[in-house]
Design a protein that fits this description.
This is Putative aldouronate transport system substrate-binding protein. The chain has 21 helices and 15 strands. By secondary structure, it is of the alpha/beta class. It folds into 2 domains: 210 residues, D-Maltodextrin-Binding Protein, domain 2, CATH 3.40.190.10; 224 residues, D-Maltodextrin-Binding Protein, domain 2. Strand 14 and strand 15 form a beta hairpin. The two termini are 30 Å apart.
Length: 548
Protein backbone atom coordinates (compact mmCIF):
# COMPACT_ATOMS: atom_id res chain seq x y z
CA UNK A 1 0.00 0.00 0.00
CA UNK A 2 1.24 3.45 -0.74
CA UNK A 3 2.12 5.61 2.23
CA UNK A 4 0.43 8.97 2.67
CA UNK A 5 1.81 11.82 4.72
CA UNK A 6 0.13 14.70 6.51
CA UNK A 7 1.61 18.15 6.04
CA UNK A 8 2.72 18.14 9.67
CA UNK A 9 4.46 14.80 9.33
CA UNK A 10 6.25 15.92 6.19
CA UNK A 11 7.51 19.05 7.92
CA UNK A 12 8.76 17.05 10.90
CA UNK A 13 10.49 14.53 8.67
CA UNK A 14 12.12 17.29 6.63
CA UNK A 15 13.58 18.72 9.81
CA UNK A 16 14.83 15.36 11.04
CA UNK A 17 16.54 14.05 7.94
CA UNK A 18 17.30 17.03 5.77
CA UNK A 19 20.93 16.82 6.82
CA UNK A 20 21.05 13.28 5.46
CA UNK A 21 19.61 14.00 2.07
CA UNK A 22 20.65 17.51 1.23
CA UNK A 23 24.22 16.41 0.62
CA UNK A 24 22.88 14.17 -2.15
CA UNK A 25 21.08 16.99 -3.88
CA UNK A 26 22.61 19.23 -6.45
CA UNK A 27 21.51 22.81 -6.24
CA UNK A 28 24.32 23.66 -8.54
CA UNK A 29 24.72 20.25 -10.28
CA UNK A 30 28.48 20.64 -10.45
CA UNK A 31 30.16 19.83 -13.75
CA UNK A 32 33.00 21.02 -15.97
CA UNK A 33 31.80 22.66 -19.18
CA UNK A 34 34.94 22.24 -21.24
CA UNK A 35 34.83 19.94 -24.26
CA UNK A 36 36.48 16.56 -24.67
CA UNK A 37 38.61 15.62 -27.67
CA UNK A 38 38.19 11.89 -27.00
CA UNK A 39 36.44 9.90 -29.68
CA UNK A 40 34.42 6.71 -29.38
CA UNK A 41 32.94 4.40 -31.99
CA UNK A 42 29.58 4.63 -30.26
CA UNK A 43 29.64 8.38 -29.64
CA UNK A 44 26.52 10.37 -30.40
CA UNK A 45 26.21 13.62 -32.29
CA UNK A 46 26.44 15.41 -28.95
CA UNK A 47 29.97 14.14 -28.20
CA UNK A 48 31.50 17.51 -29.04
CA UNK A 49 29.71 19.04 -26.05
CA UNK A 50 30.93 16.40 -23.60
CA UNK A 51 32.76 17.78 -20.55
CA UNK A 52 36.29 16.74 -19.68
CA UNK A 53 34.79 15.28 -16.51
CA UNK A 54 31.14 14.42 -16.05
CA UNK A 55 30.29 14.95 -12.39
CA UNK A 56 27.01 13.54 -11.12
CA UNK A 57 25.18 13.26 -7.83
CA UNK A 58 23.09 10.10 -7.73
CA UNK A 59 20.54 8.86 -5.17
CA UNK A 60 19.53 5.21 -5.34
CA UNK A 61 18.48 2.47 -2.90
CA UNK A 62 20.67 -0.29 -1.55
CA UNK A 63 19.56 -3.75 -0.56
CA UNK A 64 22.02 -4.79 2.11
CA UNK A 65 25.16 -5.17 0.01
CA UNK A 66 27.49 -2.32 -0.95
CA UNK A 67 28.76 -2.59 -4.56
CA UNK A 68 31.58 -0.11 -3.95
CA UNK A 69 34.91 -1.68 -4.89
CA UNK A 70 33.44 -4.93 -6.22
CA UNK A 71 34.91 -6.29 -9.45
CA UNK A 72 31.66 -5.71 -11.32
CA UNK A 73 31.33 -2.12 -10.10
CA UNK A 74 34.93 -1.42 -11.07
CA UNK A 75 34.35 -2.86 -14.53
CA UNK A 76 31.12 -0.86 -14.80
CA UNK A 77 33.04 2.35 -14.15
CA UNK A 78 35.64 1.46 -16.79
CA UNK A 79 32.97 0.62 -19.34
CA UNK A 80 30.98 3.81 -18.94
CA UNK A 81 34.08 6.00 -19.16
CA UNK A 82 35.21 4.19 -22.31
CA UNK A 83 31.76 4.55 -23.81
CA UNK A 84 31.31 8.18 -22.79
CA UNK A 85 34.81 9.15 -23.87
CA UNK A 86 35.31 11.19 -20.71
CA UNK A 87 36.00 10.77 -17.03
CA UNK A 88 32.85 10.10 -15.01
CA UNK A 89 32.76 10.97 -11.30
CA UNK A 90 29.67 9.88 -9.38
CA UNK A 91 28.88 10.98 -5.84
CA UNK A 92 26.69 8.14 -4.60
CA UNK A 93 24.01 8.36 -1.93
CA UNK A 94 22.59 4.91 -1.23
CA UNK A 95 19.53 4.82 1.03
CA UNK A 96 18.31 1.54 2.59
CA UNK A 97 15.39 0.16 0.59
CA UNK A 98 13.06 0.17 3.59
CA UNK A 99 13.63 3.92 4.06
CA UNK A 100 13.84 4.90 0.42
CA UNK A 101 10.26 5.87 -0.37
CA UNK A 102 9.88 8.08 2.68
CA UNK A 103 13.17 9.93 2.30
CA UNK A 104 12.96 10.47 -1.44
CA UNK A 105 9.36 11.63 -1.18
CA UNK A 106 10.60 14.53 0.93
CA UNK A 107 13.22 15.34 -1.70
CA UNK A 108 10.59 15.38 -4.42
CA UNK A 109 8.26 17.55 -2.37
CA UNK A 110 11.05 20.05 -1.73
CA UNK A 111 12.00 20.13 -5.42
CA UNK A 112 15.68 19.84 -4.47
CA UNK A 113 16.88 16.69 -6.20
CA UNK A 114 20.22 15.30 -7.41
CA UNK A 115 21.24 14.90 -11.05
CA UNK A 116 19.89 11.36 -11.12
CA UNK A 117 17.64 9.40 -8.77
CA UNK A 118 15.30 6.43 -8.68
CA UNK A 119 11.68 7.45 -8.15
CA UNK A 120 9.11 5.02 -6.80
CA UNK A 121 5.59 5.15 -8.19
CA UNK A 122 4.58 6.24 -11.66
CA UNK A 123 2.22 8.76 -10.11
CA UNK A 124 5.27 10.54 -8.68
CA UNK A 125 7.13 10.32 -11.98
CA UNK A 126 4.26 11.88 -13.91
CA UNK A 127 3.33 14.42 -11.24
CA UNK A 128 6.79 15.88 -10.75
CA UNK A 129 7.73 15.45 -14.38
CA UNK A 130 4.80 17.59 -15.46
CA UNK A 131 5.87 20.17 -12.88
CA UNK A 132 9.17 20.47 -14.74
CA UNK A 133 11.39 18.68 -12.22
CA UNK A 134 12.61 15.98 -14.65
CA UNK A 135 13.96 15.86 -18.20
CA UNK A 136 11.57 14.77 -20.93
CA UNK A 137 13.52 11.91 -22.53
CA UNK A 138 11.55 12.15 -25.76
CA UNK A 139 13.52 15.33 -26.47
CA UNK A 140 16.72 13.26 -26.41
CA UNK A 141 15.60 10.32 -28.54
CA UNK A 142 18.85 10.34 -30.54
CA UNK A 143 20.68 9.56 -27.29
CA UNK A 144 18.62 6.48 -26.38
CA UNK A 145 19.20 3.74 -29.00
CA UNK A 146 19.31 1.00 -26.35
CA UNK A 147 16.46 2.19 -24.17
CA UNK A 148 14.29 2.62 -27.26
CA UNK A 149 14.37 -1.14 -27.88
CA UNK A 150 12.73 -1.64 -24.47
CA UNK A 151 10.24 1.17 -25.05
CA UNK A 152 9.26 -0.22 -28.44
CA UNK A 153 8.84 -3.74 -27.00
CA UNK A 154 6.42 -2.52 -24.33
CA UNK A 155 2.76 -3.06 -25.13
CA UNK A 156 0.70 0.12 -25.53
CA UNK A 157 3.82 2.19 -24.89
CA UNK A 158 2.17 5.52 -25.75
CA UNK A 159 -0.34 5.19 -22.92
CA UNK A 160 1.67 3.08 -20.47
CA UNK A 161 4.95 5.01 -20.48
CA UNK A 162 4.11 8.47 -21.82
CA UNK A 163 1.86 11.29 -20.73
CA UNK A 164 -1.00 12.77 -22.71
CA UNK A 165 1.51 15.35 -23.94
CA UNK A 166 3.80 12.62 -25.29
CA UNK A 167 6.38 13.13 -22.56
CA UNK A 168 8.61 10.35 -21.24
CA UNK A 169 10.10 11.21 -17.86
CA UNK A 170 11.94 8.08 -16.75
CA UNK A 171 14.19 5.20 -17.62
CA UNK A 172 11.67 2.65 -16.42
CA UNK A 173 12.35 -0.71 -14.80
CA UNK A 174 13.42 -3.05 -17.62
CA UNK A 175 13.43 -6.81 -18.02
CA UNK A 176 14.83 -9.16 -20.62
CA UNK A 177 13.70 -12.78 -20.70
CA UNK A 178 15.38 -14.48 -23.69
CA UNK A 179 13.59 -17.78 -23.03
CA UNK A 180 10.21 -19.44 -23.43
CA UNK A 181 9.53 -19.86 -19.72
CA UNK A 182 7.04 -17.72 -17.80
CA UNK A 183 7.71 -18.61 -14.18
CA UNK A 184 6.79 -17.25 -10.78
CA UNK A 185 8.88 -16.84 -7.66
CA UNK A 186 5.89 -17.63 -5.45
CA UNK A 187 4.41 -21.00 -4.51
CA UNK A 188 2.71 -22.90 -1.70
CA UNK A 189 4.85 -24.49 1.01
CA UNK A 190 4.39 -27.48 3.30
CA UNK A 191 6.32 -28.90 6.26
CA UNK A 192 7.27 -32.09 4.41
CA UNK A 193 8.86 -33.96 7.33
CA UNK A 194 5.68 -33.59 9.39
CA UNK A 195 3.44 -34.57 6.48
CA UNK A 196 5.51 -37.69 5.82
CA UNK A 197 5.83 -38.62 9.50
CA UNK A 198 2.04 -38.60 9.87
CA UNK A 199 1.26 -40.04 6.42
CA UNK A 200 -0.64 -36.91 5.37
CA UNK A 201 -1.00 -36.20 1.67
CA UNK A 202 0.61 -33.00 0.43
CA UNK A 203 -2.41 -31.02 -0.84
CA UNK A 204 -3.12 -30.28 -4.47
CA UNK A 205 -6.60 -28.80 -3.86
CA UNK A 206 -8.12 -26.48 -1.28
CA UNK A 207 -10.25 -29.29 0.11
CA UNK A 208 -7.15 -31.43 0.60
CA UNK A 209 -5.50 -28.47 2.35
CA UNK A 210 -8.47 -28.25 4.70
CA UNK A 211 -8.35 -31.99 5.47
CA UNK A 212 -4.59 -31.87 6.05
CA UNK A 213 -4.97 -28.90 8.39
CA UNK A 214 -7.63 -30.72 10.43
CA UNK A 215 -5.35 -33.72 10.90
CA UNK A 216 -2.42 -31.51 11.86
CA UNK A 217 -4.52 -29.59 14.39
CA UNK A 218 -5.56 -32.86 16.01
CA UNK A 219 -1.95 -34.05 16.18
CA UNK A 220 -0.51 -30.69 17.28
CA UNK A 221 -3.29 -28.88 19.18
CA UNK A 222 -1.05 -25.95 20.14
CA UNK A 223 -0.43 -25.16 16.48
CA UNK A 224 -2.30 -23.15 13.90
CA UNK A 225 -1.49 -25.30 10.85
CA UNK A 226 -1.97 -22.57 8.21
CA UNK A 227 -0.01 -19.33 8.36
CA UNK A 228 1.24 -16.57 6.11
CA UNK A 229 4.64 -15.00 5.51
CA UNK A 230 3.69 -11.51 4.31
CA UNK A 231 0.60 -9.42 4.86
CA UNK A 232 -2.25 -10.66 2.64
CA UNK A 233 0.06 -13.09 0.80
CA UNK A 234 -1.73 -16.23 1.99
CA UNK A 235 -5.09 -14.55 1.52
CA UNK A 236 -4.14 -13.75 -2.07
CA UNK A 237 -3.12 -17.39 -2.56
CA UNK A 238 -6.67 -18.49 -1.77
CA UNK A 239 -8.09 -15.87 -4.13
CA UNK A 240 -5.71 -16.91 -6.92
CA UNK A 241 -7.11 -20.43 -6.72
CA UNK A 242 -10.58 -18.96 -7.17
CA UNK A 243 -9.49 -16.89 -10.20
CA UNK A 244 -10.21 -13.57 -8.55
CA UNK A 245 -8.32 -10.79 -6.78
CA UNK A 246 -8.41 -8.47 -3.78
CA UNK A 247 -8.64 -5.37 -5.98
CA UNK A 248 -9.14 -4.15 -9.53
CA UNK A 249 -7.72 -6.68 -11.99
CA UNK A 250 -7.83 -7.71 -15.65
CA UNK A 251 -9.89 -10.90 -16.05
CA UNK A 252 -8.81 -11.52 -19.63
CA UNK A 253 -11.60 -9.45 -21.14
CA UNK A 254 -11.96 -6.34 -19.01
CA UNK A 255 -10.99 -4.69 -15.74
CA UNK A 256 -13.25 -5.78 -12.88
CA UNK A 257 -13.28 -5.43 -9.09
CA UNK A 258 -12.55 -8.75 -7.41
CA UNK A 259 -14.12 -8.04 -3.99
CA UNK A 260 -17.59 -7.82 -5.55
CA UNK A 261 -17.34 -11.22 -7.28
CA UNK A 262 -18.88 -14.50 -6.09
CA UNK A 263 -15.47 -16.16 -6.40
CA UNK A 264 -14.09 -13.67 -3.87
CA UNK A 265 -16.96 -14.38 -1.50
CA UNK A 266 -16.26 -18.12 -1.80
CA UNK A 267 -12.63 -17.46 -0.89
CA UNK A 268 -13.68 -15.60 2.26
CA UNK A 269 -16.10 -18.40 3.15
CA UNK A 270 -13.28 -20.95 2.88
CA UNK A 271 -11.04 -18.82 5.09
CA UNK A 272 -13.89 -18.35 7.57
CA UNK A 273 -14.24 -22.13 7.81
CA UNK A 274 -10.53 -22.47 8.51
CA UNK A 275 -10.65 -19.69 11.10
CA UNK A 276 -13.71 -21.02 12.93
CA UNK A 277 -11.98 -24.40 13.34
CA UNK A 278 -8.74 -22.74 14.52
CA UNK A 279 -6.85 -24.01 11.48
CA UNK A 280 -5.37 -20.64 10.51
CA UNK A 281 -3.24 -18.37 12.64
CA UNK A 282 -5.21 -15.52 14.27
CA UNK A 283 -2.48 -13.27 12.82
CA UNK A 284 -3.13 -14.64 9.32
CA UNK A 285 -3.78 -11.20 7.79
CA UNK A 286 -1.00 -9.36 9.60
CA UNK A 287 2.06 -11.62 9.96
CA UNK A 288 5.23 -10.70 8.09
CA UNK A 289 8.27 -12.93 7.62
CA UNK A 290 9.86 -11.85 10.93
CA UNK A 291 6.83 -13.27 12.74
CA UNK A 292 6.38 -16.20 10.37
CA UNK A 293 9.91 -17.63 10.42
CA UNK A 294 9.94 -18.65 14.12
CA UNK A 295 6.57 -20.36 13.66
CA UNK A 296 7.78 -22.18 10.54
CA UNK A 297 10.79 -23.58 12.39
CA UNK A 298 9.16 -24.42 15.75
CA UNK A 299 6.17 -26.56 14.84
CA UNK A 300 3.57 -23.78 15.03
CA UNK A 301 2.90 -23.54 11.27
CA UNK A 302 2.88 -26.35 8.69
CA UNK A 303 1.22 -24.81 5.63
CA UNK A 304 1.61 -21.59 3.66
CA UNK A 305 -1.00 -21.23 0.88
CA UNK A 306 1.41 -18.86 -0.87
CA UNK A 307 4.81 -17.37 -0.07
CA UNK A 308 8.00 -16.14 -1.70
CA UNK A 309 9.76 -19.35 -2.68
CA UNK A 310 13.14 -18.26 -1.34
CA UNK A 311 11.88 -18.44 2.25
CA UNK A 312 11.83 -22.24 2.13
CA UNK A 313 15.60 -22.35 1.72
CA UNK A 314 15.87 -20.09 4.78
CA UNK A 315 13.60 -22.36 6.82
CA UNK A 316 15.53 -25.48 5.86
CA UNK A 317 18.90 -23.82 6.53
CA UNK A 318 18.05 -23.63 10.24
CA UNK A 319 20.06 -26.67 11.35
CA UNK A 320 19.08 -26.24 14.98
CA UNK A 321 15.39 -26.45 14.07
CA UNK A 322 15.96 -29.46 11.79
CA UNK A 323 12.85 -28.87 9.67
CA UNK A 324 12.18 -29.87 6.07
CA UNK A 325 9.91 -27.67 4.00
CA UNK A 326 8.93 -28.21 0.38
CA UNK A 327 7.40 -25.94 -2.20
CA UNK A 328 4.44 -26.99 -4.35
CA UNK A 329 2.08 -25.37 -6.80
CA UNK A 330 -0.72 -23.35 -5.21
CA UNK A 331 -3.60 -25.64 -4.25
CA UNK A 332 -6.36 -25.62 -6.87
CA UNK A 333 -10.05 -25.00 -6.45
CA UNK A 334 -11.42 -27.50 -9.02
CA UNK A 335 -14.46 -25.27 -9.57
CA UNK A 336 -12.18 -22.78 -11.31
CA UNK A 337 -9.46 -25.04 -12.67
CA UNK A 338 -5.72 -24.51 -12.30
CA UNK A 339 -4.79 -22.00 -9.61
CA UNK A 340 -3.21 -18.84 -10.92
CA UNK A 341 0.44 -18.25 -10.15
CA UNK A 342 1.34 -14.97 -8.50
CA UNK A 343 3.40 -12.67 -10.71
CA UNK A 344 4.29 -14.79 -13.76
CA UNK A 345 7.23 -13.28 -15.64
CA UNK A 346 6.64 -12.39 -19.31
CA UNK A 347 8.83 -13.42 -22.22
CA UNK A 348 10.98 -11.03 -24.23
CA UNK A 349 11.89 -7.44 -23.38
CA UNK A 350 9.80 -4.70 -21.89
CA UNK A 351 9.33 -2.11 -19.17
CA UNK A 352 7.32 -1.88 -15.97
CA UNK A 353 6.28 1.61 -14.92
CA UNK A 354 6.30 1.13 -11.16
CA UNK A 355 9.82 2.56 -10.78
CA UNK A 356 11.98 4.79 -12.90
CA UNK A 357 15.34 6.55 -12.99
CA UNK A 358 14.82 10.26 -13.57
CA UNK A 359 17.20 13.07 -14.53
CA UNK A 360 16.96 16.51 -12.99
CA UNK A 361 15.91 19.20 -15.45
CA UNK A 362 18.73 21.30 -13.97
CA UNK A 363 21.55 18.86 -14.70
CA UNK A 364 24.48 20.55 -16.49
CA UNK A 365 24.95 18.06 -19.32
CA UNK A 366 21.59 16.44 -20.10
CA UNK A 367 22.66 14.78 -23.36
CA UNK A 368 25.58 13.07 -21.64
CA UNK A 369 23.55 11.91 -18.66
CA UNK A 370 20.88 10.50 -20.97
CA UNK A 371 23.56 8.72 -22.97
CA UNK A 372 25.10 7.20 -19.83
CA UNK A 373 21.80 5.85 -18.53
CA UNK A 374 20.86 4.55 -21.96
CA UNK A 375 24.06 2.51 -22.02
CA UNK A 376 22.80 0.54 -19.02
CA UNK A 377 20.12 -0.87 -21.33
CA UNK A 378 22.67 -2.26 -23.81
CA UNK A 379 23.19 -6.03 -24.02
CA UNK A 380 26.83 -5.60 -23.03
CA UNK A 381 26.05 -3.76 -19.81
CA UNK A 382 23.10 -5.96 -18.92
CA UNK A 383 25.36 -9.00 -19.20
CA UNK A 384 28.04 -7.35 -17.06
CA UNK A 385 25.67 -6.26 -14.31
CA UNK A 386 23.55 -9.42 -14.24
CA UNK A 387 26.13 -12.14 -14.94
CA UNK A 388 29.39 -10.54 -13.86
CA UNK A 389 32.67 -11.16 -15.67
CA UNK A 390 33.26 -14.08 -18.00
CA UNK A 391 35.76 -16.49 -16.48
CA UNK A 392 35.24 -15.13 -12.98
CA UNK A 393 31.53 -15.66 -12.41
CA UNK A 394 30.17 -17.24 -15.59
CA UNK A 395 31.12 -19.10 -18.75
CA UNK A 396 29.55 -19.59 -22.16
CA UNK A 397 28.80 -23.21 -23.04
CA UNK A 398 27.02 -24.25 -26.24
CA UNK A 399 26.19 -20.62 -26.83
CA UNK A 400 24.50 -20.21 -23.45
CA UNK A 401 25.76 -18.32 -20.41
CA UNK A 402 25.92 -20.23 -17.14
CA UNK A 403 27.50 -19.60 -13.77
CA UNK A 404 30.82 -21.35 -13.26
CA UNK A 405 30.11 -24.88 -11.95
CA UNK A 406 32.56 -24.53 -9.06
CA UNK A 407 30.87 -21.29 -8.05
CA UNK A 408 27.33 -22.62 -8.47
CA UNK A 409 28.06 -25.68 -6.31
CA UNK A 410 29.49 -23.62 -3.45
CA UNK A 411 27.28 -23.54 -0.34
CA UNK A 412 27.57 -19.74 -0.28
CA UNK A 413 27.01 -19.32 -4.02
CA UNK A 414 24.70 -16.30 -3.76
CA UNK A 415 26.98 -14.67 -1.21
CA UNK A 416 29.88 -15.10 -3.62
CA UNK A 417 27.87 -13.39 -6.35
CA UNK A 418 27.12 -10.55 -3.96
CA UNK A 419 30.80 -10.14 -3.05
CA UNK A 420 31.65 -9.80 -6.74
CA UNK A 421 28.84 -7.29 -7.24
CA UNK A 422 26.64 -9.43 -9.49
CA UNK A 423 23.13 -7.95 -9.55
CA UNK A 424 21.51 -11.37 -9.75
CA UNK A 425 22.45 -11.78 -6.09
CA UNK A 426 19.66 -9.24 -5.42
CA UNK A 427 21.54 -7.82 -2.43
CA UNK A 428 24.51 -6.12 -4.12
CA UNK A 429 23.47 -4.15 -7.19
CA UNK A 430 26.06 -2.06 -9.04
CA UNK A 431 25.27 0.69 -11.51
CA UNK A 432 22.47 3.21 -11.25
CA UNK A 433 19.61 0.96 -10.20
CA UNK A 434 17.25 -0.28 -11.25
CA UNK A 435 19.12 -1.63 -14.25
CA UNK A 436 17.37 -4.12 -16.56
CA UNK A 437 17.16 -7.64 -15.19
CA UNK A 438 18.18 -10.47 -17.47
CA UNK A 439 15.83 -13.11 -16.18
CA UNK A 440 17.89 -16.23 -16.95
CA UNK A 441 20.66 -14.83 -14.76
CA UNK A 442 18.11 -14.45 -11.97
CA UNK A 443 16.45 -17.82 -12.47
CA UNK A 444 19.72 -19.73 -12.37
CA UNK A 445 21.19 -17.76 -9.45
CA UNK A 446 18.90 -19.27 -6.83
CA UNK A 447 19.83 -22.53 -5.06
CA UNK A 448 17.73 -25.61 -5.80
CA UNK A 449 15.06 -26.34 -3.20
CA UNK A 450 12.61 -29.18 -2.61
CA UNK A 451 9.59 -28.92 -4.90
CA UNK A 452 6.72 -31.39 -4.52
CA UNK A 453 4.92 -32.61 -7.61
CA UNK A 454 3.19 -35.81 -8.70
CA UNK A 455 3.65 -37.56 -5.38
CA UNK A 456 7.30 -36.77 -4.69
CA UNK A 457 9.58 -33.94 -3.62
CA UNK A 458 12.92 -33.39 -5.29
CA UNK A 459 15.53 -30.65 -5.50
CA UNK A 460 14.64 -28.28 -8.34
CA UNK A 461 14.98 -24.70 -9.48
CA UNK A 462 11.75 -23.17 -8.24
CA UNK A 463 11.40 -20.78 -11.17
CA UNK A 464 11.68 -23.55 -13.72
CA UNK A 465 9.48 -25.90 -11.69
CA UNK A 466 6.70 -23.32 -11.44
CA UNK A 467 6.72 -22.93 -15.21
CA UNK A 468 6.87 -26.66 -15.95
CA UNK A 469 4.20 -27.75 -13.46
CA UNK A 470 1.96 -24.72 -13.82
CA UNK A 471 1.91 -24.36 -17.57
CA UNK A 472 0.27 -21.52 -19.44
CA UNK A 473 -3.09 -22.13 -17.76
CA UNK A 474 -1.61 -21.06 -14.41
CA UNK A 475 -0.75 -17.57 -15.71
CA UNK A 476 -3.13 -15.00 -14.29
CA UNK A 477 -4.75 -12.80 -16.96
CA UNK A 478 -3.81 -9.88 -14.74
CA UNK A 479 -0.12 -10.67 -15.28
CA UNK A 480 -0.74 -10.04 -18.97
CA UNK A 481 -3.05 -7.07 -18.51
CA UNK A 482 -3.02 -4.34 -21.17
CA UNK A 483 -0.52 -1.61 -20.35
CA UNK A 484 -2.35 1.60 -19.57
CA UNK A 485 -1.41 4.95 -18.05
CA UNK A 486 -3.68 7.44 -16.32
CA UNK A 487 -3.21 11.19 -16.26
CA UNK A 488 -2.56 12.95 -12.97
CA UNK A 489 -6.20 14.02 -12.72
CA UNK A 490 -7.35 10.49 -13.50
CA UNK A 491 -4.92 9.03 -10.97
CA UNK A 492 -6.28 11.43 -8.35
CA UNK A 493 -9.83 10.43 -9.27
CA UNK A 494 -8.99 6.75 -8.84
CA UNK A 495 -7.29 7.39 -5.50
CA UNK A 496 -10.15 9.53 -4.19
CA UNK A 497 -12.70 6.88 -5.11
CA UNK A 498 -10.81 3.67 -4.38
CA UNK A 499 -8.92 4.49 -1.17
CA UNK A 500 -12.04 4.48 1.04
CA UNK A 501 -13.53 1.54 -0.85
CA UNK A 502 -10.35 -0.56 -0.58
CA UNK A 503 -10.01 0.29 3.11
CA UNK A 504 -13.59 -0.79 3.75
CA UNK A 505 -13.09 -3.98 1.74
CA UNK A 506 -9.94 -4.96 3.67
CA UNK A 507 -11.59 -4.30 7.01
CA UNK A 508 -14.68 -6.23 5.94
CA UNK A 509 -12.61 -9.18 4.71
CA UNK A 510 -11.14 -9.64 8.18
CA UNK A 511 -14.60 -9.38 9.73
CA UNK A 512 -16.04 -11.96 7.32
CA UNK A 513 -13.15 -14.33 8.00
CA UNK A 514 -13.45 -13.95 11.78
CA UNK A 515 -17.24 -14.26 11.71
CA UNK A 516 -17.82 -10.73 12.96
CA UNK A 517 -19.85 -10.17 9.78
CA UNK A 518 -22.08 -12.99 8.60
CA UNK A 519 -22.33 -13.87 4.94
CA UNK A 520 -26.03 -13.05 5.17
CA UNK A 521 -24.73 -9.45 5.19
CA UNK A 522 -23.05 -9.82 1.80
CA UNK A 523 -25.69 -7.80 -0.04
CA UNK A 524 -25.33 -5.00 2.51
CA UNK A 525 -21.56 -5.13 1.98
CA UNK A 526 -22.02 -4.73 -1.79
CA UNK A 527 -24.50 -1.90 -1.28
CA UNK A 528 -22.06 -0.09 1.01
CA UNK A 529 -19.33 -0.29 -1.62
CA UNK A 530 -21.70 1.17 -4.18
CA UNK A 531 -22.62 4.05 -1.88
CA UNK A 532 -19.01 4.89 -1.06
CA UNK A 533 -18.05 5.96 -4.57
CA UNK A 534 -18.64 5.46 -8.26
CA UNK A 535 -16.70 2.21 -8.64
CA UNK A 536 -18.21 1.56 -12.06
CA UNK A 537 -16.88 4.89 -13.34
CA UNK A 538 -13.38 3.87 -12.28
CA UNK A 539 -13.70 0.52 -14.05
CA UNK A 540 -15.05 2.27 -17.14
CA UNK A 541 -12.09 4.65 -17.03
CA UNK A 542 -9.60 1.77 -16.83
CA UNK A 543 -11.31 -0.10 -19.64
CA UNK A 544 -11.50 3.00 -21.84
CA UNK A 545 -7.69 3.11 -21.83
CA UNK A 546 -7.34 -0.38 -23.28
CA UNK A 547 -6.19 -0.31 -26.88
CA UNK A 548 -8.93 -1.90 -28.97
Amino acid sequence: MKKSFSILRVLVLITLISTVILSACSKSNDGNTSSSNNSDANATANQASAPEELKLKVVIPHFGGDPTGTVVEQQYEKEIEAYMGTKVSIEWTRIPWGEYREKTQIMLTSGDIPDVMLVLGNDNIVKYGEQGLFLDLNKYAENTPNYSTFVDATDNKEQYLMTDNDQLFAFYDGYSNPSDIEPSQYAAAYRLDVFEKNNIKVPTTQEEMYEAAKKLKALYPDSYPIGQSEQYMGYDGILNANHTSSGIYWNGTQYVYGPTEDAYKEGLMFLNKLYSEKLIDPAFWSDEIDQAKPKATSGKTFIYPQLWSGYVADFNANKEAGVTWTLAMTADNPTYGKAWKYGSDPKGKGLQNGYGIVISAKTKHPEQVVKLLDYQYSDKMIDLLMWGIEGKSYEVKDGQKQYLPALKSAPDFVDQLAKMGVSASMSTRPGIVFTPQERIAVYTSVPDVLFYHDGKAQLENYYIASNEYGGSESISPNDRAPKVMLSKDETDEVADTMTPIDTYVQESAVKFIKGEMGFDQWDNYLATIKKMGDLQAILDLQNSKVKK
